[in-house]
Every structure is written in structure tokens, then in C-alpha cells.
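Researcher: Batch entry, complex prediction.
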Amino acid sequence: MFKVNAELKPSETLMREAYCGALMEMAKTDKRIVALDADLVSSSGMKPFFQAFPDRAIQCGIAEANMIGVAAGLSLTGKVPFCHSFGPFASRRVCDQIFISAAYAKLNVRIVGSDPGVTAAYNGGTHMPFEDMAVLRGIPEITLLEPCDPVCMADLTRQLADVYGVYYIRMARKNAVAVYEEGSTFQIGKGNVLRAGMDVTLIASGILVAEALKAAELLAAEGVSARVVDMFTWKPMDTELVAKCAEETGAIVTAENHNVYGGLGSAVAEAAAKTVPVPIEMVGTDDRFGQVGTEAFLRVEYRLTAEHIAEAAKKAIERK
Amino acid sequence: MNKTIRYKELRVFAEEIRVKTLQTFAHIGFGHIGGAMSIVEAVALLYGEFLRCDPKNPNWPERDKLVISKGHAGPTVYATLAMKGFFPEAMLRELNQGGGRLPSHTDRNKTPGIDMTTGSLGQGLSAGCGIALGDRMDGRDANTFVFLGDGELDEGQNWEAFLFANQQKLSNLIAIVDVNGQQLDGYTKDVMDLGDVEQKLAAFGWHVESCDGHDIPALYKAFSNALAWTEGPSAVVMHTKKGHGCSFAEGILSNHHINFKPEQMEEALEKANRVLDEARNALRK
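Model: C-alpha cells for the complex:
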């Protein structure tokens, strides 16, 4: 069960603090929990874990391929490994290791890819994954998650102790808008309807959930009733919810901090096409590479704002 | 233990494995014969002596684990697992059959006794590191052995894993490097020259044992020394011949994957059986 905060404010904790905190809580009682990092412990916020559990914290150096293989091997002995690197190095760089050593081998591995899309900001195009989910989505049976705030991040992290398989979590490391009330819980594979609406559904993920909520306000001022869905699970897609929204609102806008090719837009479009085909507009990076800049600059540059979502919503409604 | 007799027994076991492996290939008419033949003696020493496992309980947590990173050598291990009773010998007929349990490259989810899924070269040693680390964390007195090919060492991930194993001082990890000097496109020195493998691994902080991979007493000593080493990871660098003991595969350049005629295999099996008989006779003496 979840509750949405009445007012959108910056979260008190950072995403990485929520991740590290949840993992430390789990590790206290669950000896299976181990953490791996590729020389980014200071960035991932995992220093407290590495200090508190030195025997279960594994520094792998700048060698991500080996890290994924080590994690797979650890899980073979019953451990529950959580690996971290920046998004591009936790996905496209290690795609075959995740595919073969983890997924195809049917082992039990969690991978946190941080700094998704424009949140990589000053690290620029080399570090700015607009494709991580697309790269991994072709791996059978993998689960892809993108929480929007620390409450969701912590809850998903806790759930990952007792599920089996390969899970990739796309995590903005720092600031987030607090969308959910403390104590909210989440169901992997099920989207959350955050706001009711009948004219169009805005299906968003990660940092664009808050933008979608703002877009719904902008649309309401113009007399348009927009439903907002937080689709924090990209795979498996909640086809049932997509179909229901398509049926009831007749138009969909997807919003992702990711390339629209192979990302959330594609996944939602596949689900709608197979069930209730309706006009869909996609907000996301349109087959472009990343670049340096402030997150604020990049959000505008790649058209990832509430205004862009509202504009796309009107276009989708026109196409009904 | 009388070592001389034990070596003779292990020679018999090795030749039995060689024959059984060739018979396994015989049914399908093709396969990765070169790299399967070069590890026969090492596999015999593992399953005959050094690898603690229980055919009746293949997932026994305390067992020693084996990762065949050069996964295409699976058939040698399949033949051995059948001989050890992990599964009925009739199952060897399933090699490369659709829906079967013995794929061309080893798969932990398909075959009883196979610990890790491999085949995309360069990944097995990392998994081996994780297994060895997990066993050590939980205080299990178990070793992890990893077969690596010399051609496979072209893959950079191996060298990440060599660094990692030394950093973690994984003394319960033993890499068996099959230096047969050949890879798919030709001689290793022509395709991608590895140089001095022993020197490279020593420079990466590993304890290195070097030996002739078809010489049972030499391999026995190398494994014993590697297992006795407690300060960090060990490598048994074994120099072998790709296709060793298979008449139509030995000594030819293109023996990584071979399509053979039934009469070629008949001849190879006849010769391998003769060598097996000689080994049995030597044991009786």
C-alpha cells in the first residue's frame, strides 16, 4: 500500500542513503547480504556499509565485468549480492556478463546502476546512460526497476532479499522529489496510479514521476483530466494496468529519463498494441547522446520537463 | 599409498575417459574434440583424486566446485560424470540433442554435477572467484577449480579476475590453464601471442605450477603443490596437445571443432582402446 504526499517537496534523505540504509538494516540479520562495488563506494553512498560489514563488502576495483562474475559466483554459494557501478558501466559495459553468468546461468544477482540519464550531469555523455534499460531489456527473465524516491528505493531494496533472479535498479543517487509517504510499500511488476484522471494517462518513471504530477496540474488548469502512473517496474511491464488506462482514458503519454527507443515508451507501446491500442506520445531522449551540463539545463535540453509532458498530452488527446 | 600403482590407476581412468568422450562424440559426428582431449588427464586427476564431490548429492554445499570456463570442453566432463555415477551413461546420447541435458557448452541448470554455466569465454574465472569467496565467507573447507584455455586468455576479463583473486588471497581457488598452443584460427602465438603464461601469472601474484598436462605423475605433483599453497590463488599451467589421443585430431592445425567421418572415429576409438588396454596391462604388472 502506498500514499502520495500531498505536496511535492525535496526528500529529506538522498536516494543512495535510502539504499545503503536499507541494505545495512537487512545485513544485520541476514548473513547472505553482500555488497560489491567497482571503485565507486564514495559515490554510491555505501561507505557506511563497507565500514560496518567489511567481511561482506567486496571492493572489485575498476573491473565491472569481473564484479558481475564474482557476484554470480557468490550467489551460487547462497549469497545475495548487490553490485553497484554508474549506470553505463553496470549495464552496457557488462551486458554479456549479466546475460550469461547471471541470467542464463539462472543465478541471483542485484545490480544498481546509478546516475541515470541527465542526473549524470557534469560527468557528461560518457557517463550518461539513456540506454541502460534498453540494453538489458532483451535479457530474458531480468527485472528492471526505477524507483522515483527514497521511500520506494528503500522498500524495493528490502524486497530484493527474498526474490530470486537478476534485478537491475536504476538509481538517481542524490536529490529526489519525495513522492511517497514514509511507510509506503510497493509491488514489483505493478504500476501505481498516483492521480486519477479520465482524458489521458501519463505513465512515468524515476525523476519524471514528479514532472508528470506537475504536468497533471498544468493540464488541470486547462480543464484536462490527466491520470498519473508511476511505472517503476519496466520489466515485467504491468500490461493489465496499461490496458486499463488505455481503455479508460483513450490516450497515453510516457515519460522517461532514457532513450524512447527500447525504453519505457517502447515497453508501454508494446503492451498497449497487444491489448488496447490508443494514441501514445513519448517524452524521453529522442535517440541522442548525453552531454555535460547541470541537471536543470539537461532536463530542458532533452525536453524532460512538466511542460513538455503537458504538451505531449495535448497532442495525444488530439490524436484520439 | 603406493604412488606408482596410483599413477597407473589414474592413467587407466584417464584413458577410460578419453574413450568414453570419443564415444560420446561418435554419435553426433562433430564436436569440439581438440580442447576436450587436451584436458583428459587433468579431469581424471580431479575426479579420480583431488575433487571432493558426491555423485548422489551433486549440490552438496561442502563439495569442491569445478568451473569449466572453456565450456566447449564439456563432453570430457560429461563422460566422466557419467562414469562416476552422476547420471546414467545412456544420457551421454543426449549430447547436443534438442531438449537434451548435455549442451555443447556446460550448463549448471541442465546437467547434474556441472557447477557453473559457461561458454561465453573469459567469464568462468570471475565466477570461480565468487564461489571461492562465498565458500570462504561461510567457513566451508572447499576448493574451486577453474579450467581455462590459453586461447581464452585473450579475453581481458580473465586478467581482471587474476588481479581480484590475488587481492582477496583466494587460496581455495585453483586455475588449471590448458596451454595447448592453439585456438580456433590457428596457433596461439600467431593469433594472439600469450608469451610466457607462467611468468605473467606469477607477476599477477599467483602461485604457479608448470607441468606436462598429459604426464600423470607431473600433474599429480602440480595439483598437490597447488592445493598445499595457502597464501593465495594457485595456477596449474599445463602444457598439452590439442586433440591429444584422438588420431584424426592430433597434430592438425584446425582441430578446435571437427566434423569427422564414422571411419575416422572408428580408427580413433580403436587406437584409444588399444592405449587403454596397455594402461590396464601396465596396472596388472
